[in-house]
């Protein structure tokens, strides 16, 4: 009993600062590890939900007024014409690489957001037509792409937005809505106010492949990065374990029963 009390005194009571520091490292490591695991599980659940919703009947944008709750993550077809003069180029977007594909994910470029006037309806649908590389020497130069003229049929997946990136400040109010422009992020509500037209409350990410228009549409799966989250979680848990082991061993080095005389440390 006395031995256990001495062990408690040496490991904890006489090492308050070391104990609190170790607990802090363990708490941070475990908390960050659990957060990384939750992020991985969230991506997997989102991908499973997307796969399930893609199996549902394909929606027709021209047939009805759809809400985001009804159409989100579902396949949709639309018929109409593009409005290229009002395009928005979203900057600092990494090149999309499909699962098992090869390419440089660090290559920066643009997502081309283009309004699509639905045939027979007074409604505009914003379309993410794909990715194009940026000219690193002339950053304001837009990539050459082709836009079909006249009425066309398109198909894709419905999302709330094309994804967001960190941006310093916001786009200025003095923009010409009738000219293509470069922006960091895309705001459906702001575009509606700028143009004064009726818009669908979502965007359509084009899924066409094999079309030579200067844009890439080999979208990465939503589970992309799951392995990285697991690796980060392992590193954080390892840090927590290392903190505990260091605290324990450094304390045990001071606990030597053979050096204890009359109940005191010698």
Q: Describe it for me?
A:
This protein is of the alpha/beta class. It folds into 2 domains: 2-41 and 226-265; 59-206, no CATH class. It has 5 helices and 10 strands. It has helices at residues 2-13, 16-54, 68-71, 188-195, 226-252; strands spanning 59-60, 75-82, 88-94, 108-118, 124-133, 152-159, 181-183, 199-206, 260-261, 264-265.
User: Averaging pLDDT over every residue, what do you get?
Assistant: 83
Percent strand equals 15-25%
Distance between the termini: 19 Å
Structural class: alpha/beta
Rg is 28 Å
Strand order of the largest sheet: 2-4-5-8-6
> What letter string, H or E per element, gives the SSE order?
HHEHEEEEEEHEHEE
Helical stretch count?
5
Q: What low-confidence regions span 5 or more consecutive residues with pLDDT below 50?
A: 259-266
Number of strands: 10
Biggest sheet architecture? 5 strands, mixed, barrel
Helix amount, in percent? 25-40%
Q: So what's the overall shape?
A: elongated
Number of domains: 2
How do you describe this structure in short?
Helices cover 34% and strands 23% of the residues. The protein has 5 helices and 10 strands.
Please give the structural blueprint.
Layout (H helix, E strand, L loop, with lengths): L1 H12 L2 H39 L4 E2 L7 H4 L3 E8 L5 E7 L13 E11 L5 E10 L18 E8 L21 E3 L4 H8 L3 E8 L19 H27 L7 E2 L2 E2 L1
Parallel strand pairs: 1-2, 3-7, 5-8
Antiparallel strand pairs: 2-4, 2-6, 3-4, 4-5, 6-8, 9-10
Helix pairs in contact: 1-5, 2-5
Any descriptors?
single chain; 266 residues; alpha/beta; 2 domains; 5-stranded mixed barrel; two-stranded antiparallel ribbon
